[in-house]
Amino acid sequence: MRAANAWQDYELLDCSDGERLERWGEIILIRPDPQILWSTPKTHPLWKQAHARYHRSRTGGGQWETYKKIPDVWEIGYRDLRFRLKPMGFKHTGLFPEQAVNWDWMAERIRAANRPIRVLNLFGYTGAATLACVGAGAHVTHVDASKGMVAWGRENAVSSGLSDRPMRWLVDDCLKFVQREQRRGNTYDAILMDPPSYGRGPGGEVWKLEEQIYTLVSETAKILSDDPLFFIINSYTTGLSPSVMGYLLGTLLPKDGTVTADEIGLPVTAGGLVLPCGATAIWSK
């Protein structure tokens, strides 16, 4: 497992009884996590000093219970990047900190390429990966079906001092965008995608990852350039293992590349374990 262990402003303090105790800058949150199946003593003092806790509803969704005043929006940093955070529905804050291990990997590969790199970020969410690639010198096209997430990504670009860098921010259905890029003859040197397990496109299209991932990857592979650098798939779907994603890339992408697939995670301060937080498959040349 690859762990995102370079954070200063984020910390997974402890985890027990299906919950995470997390520090986001100065804000302490408790959030549910179905992978935390163990029950260990909650001895960390911040369990009793959290600003808010997210409670799941048995009928779907849930809500935040607030114990202390939280700013409507606050910021944390990772290396040279700055991200705006806020408690959202469905327990999220607008950032997946475990992905920092992939931000670093992509930035390193882009810098080492020593040539102009065009990156396509599909299901780009609030733009953390986009900004990591842009900060390393790439030109990035960011695509997400949510207008609000794309607007949030633009705000993160301003906070990071990168808003003048070469980026396109697009609200679109990712698969339809890829198919239009095929017809336009546009290609990319590096592609990353972070598709949701389930969702809806801007026109109400239903998305189920297990049913559509093969089509998405096969169609997207068609817009790789003649000199590609990498292709990355992230997944939080428990039924889609790293090995399966790696096999997809090995089957559909050029044979002269190398495929790796593994879990990514976050180190836990109390206890010293690394909490699995999803999986990543990478094709690289």
Structure notes:
The strands form four sheets. This protein has an eight-stranded mixed sheet with strand order 1-16-17-15-12-9-10-11, sandwiched between helices. The protein has helices at residues 100-113, 128-135, 147-159, 174-184, 209-221, 242-252; strands at 2-3, 10-16, 19-24, 27-32, 52-56, 62-66, 74-78, 81-85, 118-122, 139-144, 167-171, 190-193, 198-200, 206-208, 230-235, 258-267, 274-284. The chain is 25% helix and 33% strand. The longest helix is centred in the middle third of the chain and has 14 residues, at 100-113. Strand 5 (52-56) and strand 6 (62-66) form a beta hairpin.
Produce a short descriptive summary.
With 285 residues, the protein is α/β, with parallel strands linked by helices.
CATH topology of the largest domain, by name, is Rossmann fold
- The number of helical runs is 6
Q: Identify the CATH class of the largest domain.
A: Alpha Beta
Task: Give the total of domains.
Answer: 2
Order of strands in the sheet with the most strands? 1-16-17-15-12-9-10-11
% residues in beta strands? 25-35%
